[in-house]
Design brief:
GMP Synthetase, Chain A, domain 3; 2 domains; nine-stranded mixed sheet; four-stranded parallel sheet
Length: about 475
């Protein structure tokens, strides 16, 4: 039937119920459904093809994003959210790879980006009355694709990943079962809708007829209004919630945290400010969706773990020969579930590396104990998760080495209470140091979250016998500088 299949029924049954709370604006389900239908009609008038269309969404955090998004996926088409923080080089590369049939832009999207494309349409024009008044049937195959997202590969090259309706519909059911929320809740998604974490939360909320609380940007004081009952967030946001919440909140709030481990001290502070809160940490990936979760009791007993597998998820740990290892032994983490992505876009080779005969893997290393609890000890491809967002060292290093004065650069993540992992760079200069120029170049060509927070100069790097930089030994160098 597809995501959003029940919106018409929800709008008819509860027309005045709030679908979206946005700043001071309230959008009812009747209004939400009406706007979706209007956008659908105009999209159909723009399209000259009968097969599913790919629609690039260049809209920030505002209701129009979700109105267009649901119009697209309930037509059986594919939504491609674009990140306002992407640099022009990323936008051009991703647009070429995605090859959308339609580009829809909001006036609130950065003008420097929206002006790059001639054949684009403003979202407001799609809300205007249409001559075509035939509304399509919303029933679609659950195995049909609906979402094309982008995640950087190990070299920083954007990789498109495709999801079908079924993968998220089954995830919705498990989320309701484990996190115990439903259509009576107000779900806050304070992060960017262009990222899977907040998009999943928003999609689920509206699919089941709950109320979504949406903010244009991350506003840590938002919990002072005492509206949200469920909050999807990354640990970095928790700092803001704690600091900006005026008085302890006595209402129950369910916090669903992903992207990095919640440090014990931060957890204690969270539960002091929100004494009736229920905290779940969950582990997953863009390609794999839900893998494991940890409630308070699991975290108390196994503080370094990422919890136990979600219902319907089978986790196996394998060595380099693909043999299963014994409990407690470290190996590569493989997943079997119905939550998996379909494939990477135009990249069968990379897809086969993830979707293997032994299960799906993104290269995480970890172990399972005798209680069935999963612990992640590292990332096979050196990925850093900073503020809940993926940072690939190779991408940052490539940008740094565009500066002629840089001979070599190594980027690594170190544990940090605020960021989860803080991005650190070590630089070996050819001759004269040009640190200010290097910092400016990074900020000009990388999103802020990928820019190193600290730079250290080194005379040399440790190398392997084959001449490659020994990253594990670099970590020891970092320890000397940061201790």
């Amino acid at each position: 039937m597809g995501i959003g299949r029940d919106l018409k029924g929800i709008a008819q049954k509860n027309p005045e119920k709030a679908a979206i709370l946005f700043e001071a604006q309230v959008i009812t389900y009747a209004d939400f459904y009406r706007t979706i239908c209007q956008i659908q009609l105009n999209l159909l008038s723009l399209s000259r093809k009968n097969n599913p269309q790919k629609v690039a969404i260049l809209i920030g955090n505002e209701p129009a994003f979700l109105e267009l998004y649901f119009a697209v996926l309930t037509l059986g088409w594919i939504a491609i959210p674009f990140d306002p923080k992407w640099r022009k080089r990323d936008i051009v590369k991703i647009m070429k790879t995605a090859d959308p049939d339609l580009i829809i832009i909001s006036e609130h999207f950065p003008e420097s980006i929206s002006n790059m494309f001639d054949k684009s349409y403003g979202i407001e024009t799609l809300k205007e009355p249409s001559d075509n008044m035939i509304v399509r049937d919303w029933n679609h195959n659950d195995n049909a694709a609906f979402y094309l997202g982008f995640t950087s590969g190990s070299t920083g090259t954007p990789k498109g990943f495709i999801r079908n309706h079924k993968s998220w519909l089954t995830s919705f059911s498990v989320a309701e079962q484990i996190f115990q929320y439903n259509q009576e809740d107000i779900i806050l998604a304070p992060g960017p809708l262009c990222h899977s974490l907040s998009l999943f939360a928003a999609t689920h909320a509206l699919h089941i007829g709950a109320t979504l609380q949406l903010t244009e940007t991350f506003k840590p004081m938002v919990l002072n209004d005492r509206k949200a009952t469920v909050v999807y967030a990354v640990p970095t946001m928790i700092h803001g919630f704690i600091e900006q919440t005026v008085n302890p909140v006595q209402e129950k709030i369910v916090f669903l945290l992903s992207g990095a481990k919640l440090q014990p001290e931060l957890r204690r502070r969270l539960q002091h400010v929100f004494p009736k809160s229920v905290v779940y940490e969950y582990f997953g990936a863009s390609e794999l969706s839900f893998i494991s979760y940890a409630s308070n009791d699991v975290t108390d007993w196994y503080p370094d773990s990422v919890g136990k597998p979600f219902p319907g998820v089978k986790v196996t740990i394998r060595d380099q020969e693909m043999k299963r290892v014994t409990n407690g032994e470290i190996g590569e983490v493989f997943i079997e579930s119905d939550f998996l992505f379909t494939s990477y876009l135009h990249n069968s080779e990379e897809t086969e590396k993830v979707l293997t005969d032994y299960g799906a893997t993104v290269g995480d290393l970890g172990f399972i104990n005798d209680a069935g609890i999963l612990t992640i000890v590292g990332r096979k491809k050196h990925m850093i998760i900073s503020g809940g967002l993926n940072v690939y060292p190779e991408e940052v290093e490539k940008v740094m080495e565009e500066i002629a004065a840089v001979q070599e650069a190594v980027v690594i993540g170190i544990d940090d209470d605020y960021w989860g992992q803080k991005v650190i760079a070590l630089v070996k200069w050819k001759k004269q140091a040009e640190l200010e120029k290097l910092q400016a170049h990074c900020h000009a060509h990388l999103p802020n979250y990928k820019c190193p927070k600290e730079f250290y100069e080194v005379d040399d790097f440790p190398y392997t016998s084959t001449g490659k930089i020994a990253r594990n030994d670099v970590a020891l160098q970092i320890a000397r500088y940061t201790s």
